[in-house]
Design goal:
single chain; alpha/beta; Molybdopterin biosynthesis moea protein, domain 2; Molybdopterin biosynthesis moeA protein, domain 3; seven-stranded mixed sheet; six-stranded mixed sheet; 30% strand
Length: 411
């Protein structure tokens, strides 16, 4: 009997949520931290909190183009001489009582001023300006520190840096950040039937789409990819490839070879080299998923069918890898959506359907793409995300289901 407690194709399947929790809880963040330039930090994970050394904005400034005044010294007729002009990036002089200063969006409020009136409510008359209404103190002024206060944490340890974080970090003057080192991920694609794109089609062969799917899914996560090429369906060569990958990588991800066929050698190789802690999940597509270790290197064996590779990577391998990178929030958000279809037959496994969002009678509904076969990958590009159908559940049009958009999984 294997370490995962599975000894036959008839053993009980592990529920998806239970398997996901086991994966995340067992993932260990890589050791090693480096300091890099902010411009190179997209897709990296912060290794420490970042606090702001300054206020943002650094000083009170105008929220619009107009004129800045002192509300306590306005004449009854609201006609004021224009004493100065303050452009963005300039520092104005003290505003004299009873005068106005021409000011532009983002310009600092000069000492002695306490309100801005927009230019549409003013009329320039020679070197004077006529206000069309009496402003109140604080009108159209963005106060210093309105966005960020000194000492405020602007990015927490474990944040996956995207354009939002990079912009905020730049706004507080951060030029370098401390990040976890890149995770090295080895991709193993197995099968005598595989050939590489660009080669002439040969009888009995199919193109190796799984490598390109996995490489594309891994690229936005900022990892270093190791790819030794296609691994033949040979037990010794499979064992050698897995061992070599485990020696070089922080995580080994394979596709194919983890089912129960006579040419599926990956599962046996992992058990011979280390231990298998998880195998066969109650998920569709993707039942024959394996998780274990080769020495100290974690291993995730995905199914061989292309659509199953996509789904199991996004729902299981991706959260595991994010936790390895130091990210804390690794579970993708699910959103309620109405079903746009009926299905009277239930399935014993939790399903993740490739589904499109459609307008129907004035509201958005979700409906499965043309085919849900685990061998059909093209349905993914005709879909907007994954629609979750709980196990043993029938579906009626209008039922509320959970939807995971691809845009939250592929970036």
């Amino acid at each position: 009997m294997s370490a995962c407690g599975c000894d036959s194709g008839h053993s009980k399947l592990r529920p998806f949520a239970e398997a996901l929790n086991q994966l995340i809880d067992s993932a260990q963040t890589v050791s090693g931290v480096e300091s890099i330039k902010l411009e190179d930090a997209f897709g990296r994970v912060l290794a420490e909190d970042v606090t702001s050394p300054i206020s943002v904005p650094p000083a009170d400034n105008s929220a619009m183009d107009g004129y800045v005044v002192n509300t306590a010294s306005l004449p009854e007729d609201l006609m004021l001489p224009v004493s100065q002009r303050i452009a963005a990036g300039e520092q104005g002089e003290v505003l004299q009582p009873g005068t106005a200063a021409r000011i532009f969006t983002g310009s600092e409020i000069p000492p002695g001023a306490d309100a801005v009136i927009m230019q549409e409510q003013c009329q320039l008359v020679g070197d004077q300006v006529q206000l069309q209404l009496r402003p109140e103190q604080g009108d159209h002024i963005r106060p210093a520190g309105q966005d960020i206060q000194p000492g405020q944490c602007v990015a927490e340890k474990g944040s996956l840096l995207d354009g939002r974080y990079l912009g905020v970090l730049a706004a507080v003057g951060v030029a370098e950040v401390s990040v976890y080192r890149r995770v090295k991920v080895a991709i193993l694609t197995t099968g005598d039937e595989l050939q590489s794109p660009g080669e002439a089609p040969r009888p009995g062969k199919i193109y190796n789409s799984n490598f390109y799917t996995l490489k594309g899914l891994l690229a936005p996560l900022g990892v270093d990819i190791i790819y030794p090429g296609i691994v033949p369906d040979d037990p010794d060569l499979t064992t050698q490839a897995i061992q070599a990958a485990a020696d070089e990588a922080d995580l080994v991800i394979s596709s194919g070879g983890v089912s129960v066929g006579e040419e599926d050698h990956v599962k046996a190789a992992v058990e011979a080299l280390g231990e298998l802690m998880l195998w066969r999940l109650a998920i569709k597509p993707g039942k024959p998923l394996a998780y274990g270790r080769v020495g100290s290197t974690p291993f995730i064996g995905l199914p061989g069918n292309p659509a199953a590779v996509l789904v199991t990577f996004l729902m299981l391998a991706r959260p595991y890898l994010l936790r390895m990178q130091g990210v804390q929030d690794v579970i993708p958000a699910r959103y309620p959506v109405k079903s746009g279809f009926n299905r009277h037959k239930s399935v014993s496994r939790e399903e993740f359907l490739r589904a499109a969002l459609l307008q129907k009678e004035g509201e958005w509904v979700a409906a499965p793409a043309h085919s849900q076969s685990s061998g059909v990958l093209s349905s993914a590009v005709l879909s907007d995300g994954l629609l979750v159908i709980p196990a043993e559940t029938t579906v009626a049009e209008g039922d509320m289901l959970e939807f995971i958009p691809f845009h939250s999984l592929l970036g």
